[in-house]
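Appendix B. Raw example, untouched.
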Amino acid sequence: MKKFAISSVAATASLVLAGMASTAFNTLPLVLPHLDKTSEPIVCVGHSLGGGVAAILLLLLKRRYPELYQQQRLKGCALAAPACSCSLALGTELTEVF
């Protein structure tokens, strides 16, 4: 099982499963053009492995656009996501938006 590190200036590196991280990173460019087109909340939703992807995508958005998080425009829901989707530090950070 490969792990992938997600890091930012605001936080130390967090470990996530590489496949889910890769999918979240590949999905991010598809979401970005729509952020300026709505004032509605951005909701990332997924089931099973998609739940892990939704959680990672939400974290990437939260770290890249902290103003959306401060405006409470970032929301998420993961149904039956794998418990091993991320490290404890990342899980703690995600509880703020999930």
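End of appendix B.
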